[in-house]
Amino acid sequence: xxxxxxxxxxxxxxxxxxxxxxxxxxxxxxxxxxxxxxxxxxxxxxxxxxxxxxxxxxxxxxxxxxxxxxxxxxxxxxxxxxxxxxxxxxxxxxxxxxxxxxxxxxxxxxxxxxxxxxxxxxxxxxxxxxxxxxxxxxxxxxxxxxxxxxxxxxxxxxxxxxxxxxxxxxxxxxxxxxxxxxxxxxxx
Length: 188
Hints:
Blueprint: E1 2-3, E2 10-11, E3 13-19, H1 23-34, E4 39-42, E5 49-52, E6 55-56, E7 61-68, E8 71-78, H2 85-89, E9 96-104, H3 107-116, E10 121-127, E11 136-141, H4 144-147, E12 150-155, H5 156-170, E13 179-183
Parallel strand pairs: 3-8, 4-13, 9-12
Antiparallel strand pairs: 1-2, 3-9, 4-7, 5-6, 5-10, 7-8, 10-11, 11-12
């Protein structure tokens, strides 16, 4: 559980994310070991805006997400040498635990609240991965000193349908079609 910094309500941790050297390979590993999946690939996903420690960056990543029981798991592979929230924790590309994701009522108020408590906003990004009409802002706060990982904020109203789609795909999944591209194409 997570205490929303603005509303004071207890909220669930929605996602646990890892930085990995090969997101597709690690999705197969995660499925084999833990029964998670199916996994959805957002390959080389463009962002409308990305900042790292307050400076705009051009970052090339692939995110692979799947359901793991009650929580989504994300596997992030960075394809470039650009300094980022991922390389700050894992300069050689991982593998390792990177962040947990929580839904907040107001992303900007939550960022401000965490900054006032000494947690740096090390990544702020805006993306519309599925052609949604409303951009999806998210932020990563540096909570390593308290939790050993970053904390990512999303507003639930913006990403609810995406999380629901991933969860529903896992319900009764027959293990067929384990890797599904929803943005980008397979490499090679």
